[in-house]
Amino acid sequence: MTEPANDQPQPAASETPAPEAPATPDPLAEAIAKIAALEAEMAKTKDAALRAMADAENMRKRADREIVDREKYAVGNFAKALLAVSDNLRRALDAVSAEARAADPHLAKLAEGVELTERELLSVFERNGVAKIDAAGKPFDPALHQAVAQVEAPAGVAAGTVVQVFQPGYTIHGRLLREAMVTVAKGAPAQGIDTTA
């Protein structure tokens, strides 16, 4: 038997089929891809630069705040130490009665000098941002007051009201320097005050 004839020529055994020719790259597509990659890299770099600039600005603001705070509160320890001097001047004046001043002109002049000294010290405090806390007759505030005692509420005074100040408190530029030592009223609230919440 013979094989049927094939009309198509058979390739020789040593011949291999020719590989397909590679597609020629499209220059326009390559350029667009390159532009897109560069734009993405530029956006990433721009974002990093903006973040770095924002961080630098925040650091500058924080440093400025710290400088201002240091300038404001640098004298805090010194001012706190001087509060004892102010307290002692006030105690000296409170120790001299009006009758003793009237009886002894030398004592009256001494008391007047102490009053002037106290007034000047309080003026210096005020010029440097140190302010006295007005506590008497105000509601007790644990952020500003230190309660050293509680007493029955006098007539017409609500519970929780400061009735006596043993030692005045002070702030420096709005920040607490020393708490006021106070006596607080306890008991029933005054008439007309609604305590239900």
Question: Care to describe what's here?
Answer:
It is elongated, with a radius of gyration of 44 Å. Helix content is 49%, strand content 16%. The protein has a 3-stranded antiparallel beta sheet with strand order 1-4-5. The chain has a 3-stranded mixed beta sheet with strand order 2-6-3, with no helix packed on it. The mean pLDDT is 85. Helix 2 runs antiparallel to helix 4.
At the first level of CATH, the class of the domain at 130-189 is Mainly Beta
| Mean of residue pLDDT values | 85
- The CATH architecture category of the domain at 130-189 equals Roll
CATH fold-level name of the domain at 130-189: Nucleotide Exchange Factor Grpe, Chain A, domain 2
What structural category do the secondary elements indicate? alpha+beta
Task: Summarize this entry quickly.
This protein is of the alpha+beta class and 197 residues long. The chain contains 4 helices and 6 strands.
Key descriptive features of the protein:
6 strands, three-stranded mixed β-sheet, three-stranded antiparallel β-sheet, 197 residues
Describe the secondary structure blueprint for this structure.
Layout (H helix, E strand, L loop, with lengths): L26 H47 L2 H20 L2 H6 L1 H23 L2 E3 L12 E8 L9 E6 L2 E3 L2 E4 L1 E7 L11
Parallel strand pairs: 2-6
Antiparallel strand pairs: 1-4, 3-6, 4-5
Helix pairs in contact: 2-4
